[in-house]
Amino acid sequence: MDEKSSSETRGNPIRCRAAVSRKPGEPLVIEEVMVAPPMPHEVRIRIICTSLCHSDITFWKLKDFPGIFPRILGHEAIGVVESVGEDVDEVSEGDTVIPTFMPDCGDCVDCRSKKSNLCSKLPFKVSPWMPRHETSRFTDLKGEVLYHFLFVSSFSEYTVVDVAHVTKIDPSIAPNRACLLSCGVSTGVGAAWRTANVEKGSTVVIFGLGSIGLAVAEGARLCGATKIIGVDLNPDKFENGKKFGVTDFVNSGNCGDKSVSQVIDEMTDGGADYCFECVGMASLVHEAYACCRKGWGKTIVLGVDKPGAKLSLSSFEVLHSGKSLMGSLFGGLKAKSDIPILLKKYLDKELQLDEFVTHEVRFDDINKAFDLLIEGNCLRCVIWMDKQVSS
């Protein structure tokens, strides 16, 4: 739809287009929907562009809860505030904002601490509702409820997001780059920078060189790691990895009679300082922990495994090796303070974002973005809501 002035729409439902996922694994349907006004602590945003993340594809395929339909997916985006609800004072109409799936309320003990990004006031969960009121702001033209996704639902020309999930940014930054910090790149870079606190001169191993793994490499490079080893089944990913600082490559399907961890141990003379699991497989978490250096090594888990997956670590090894094992949601970043820092690094040409965008499509071609990511032909595909682009 054409951009409308806030004076025309404020306080009223907005009729606009959205890409609705109606059945698991089936192409999204672009249709007109109704987007309700924001309730207290909420903002309504006009989406400029959004990008596709593997998490969208994972939930798009799920036949059982937390898969739920009909739903508006999408959670990496940038937009402009169209209107605000009551008790919102940190952003105003016309502000450029990045929505994030992780909240940053700024008020609870966790958000006020430097030790955690896990808000206790609005704890993260995979919910089909808004976080405070547990209701939807979307309905189709028949009045049927459309479910939310990760508190963002950016595959819509307009969406409603809780203010705790919104970060105000400099409007001059290219939207097709800034949107990447809404999830994927922030998660990977943050895992190296904030969660692991990678030290200059250290050795890093990354299991899985998809977009998250490459973002970890970028973060490790920024932190000054001197040896960054990428592990993947696809040797073609090494060339791409070099752009983000990957110095060595291990083909996990071609290690002969040795395990991947044994190969890494030999390459690093006893194990890496930091190991990152970016695939979502318990077996790879075990391998990453095994090739982590005794005494001070850290293994960081970023990959999302299937529901119910378990780890089984040797109690003896945990006690005697002195290693650390930790998870990293959204890279340990506090969105409202850390995203502006990353954007400044991008403007200063320290952080690479351009290299992550391999394709751009129109909103009408959103299903093409799904095909590209599933086929492994892109890192990030940016979807423009109202711009004519060629992919």
TrEMBL record:
Pfam families: ADH_N, ADH_zinc_N
Family membership: Belongs to the zinc-containing alcohol dehydrogenase family. Class-III subfamily.
Cofactor: Zn(2+)
EC number: 1.1.1.1
Domain Alcohol dehydrogenase-like C-terminal: 212-343
GO biological process, one term: formaldehyde catabolic process
Native source organism of the sequence: Quercus rubra
One GO CC annotation: cytosol
Alphabetically ordered keywords of this record: Metal-binding, NAD, Oxidoreductase, Zinc
Class in the EC hierarchy, top level: oxidoreductase
Superkingdom of this protein's organism: Eukaryota
Self-association state and partner proteins as the record states: Homodimer.
Protein known as: alcohol dehydrogenase
Molecular function per GO: alcohol dehydrogenase (NAD+) activity; S-(hydroxymethyl)glutathione dehydrogenase [NAD(P)+] activity; zinc ion binding
Keyword Metal-binding among UniProt keywords: yes
Gene3D superfamilies in alphabetical order: Medium-chain alcohol dehydrogenases, catalytic domain, NAD(P)-binding Rossmann-like Domain
UniProt domain Alcohol dehydrogenase-like N-terminal: residue ranges: 40-170
InterPro entries registered for this protein in UniProt: ADH-like_C (IPR013149), ADH-like_N (IPR013154), ADH_Zn_CS (IPR002328), GroES-like_sf (IPR011032), NAD(P)-bd_dom_sf (IPR036291)
Catalytic reaction equation(s): a primary alcohol + NAD(+) = an aldehyde + NADH + H(+); a secondary alcohol + NAD(+) = a ketone + NADH + H(+)
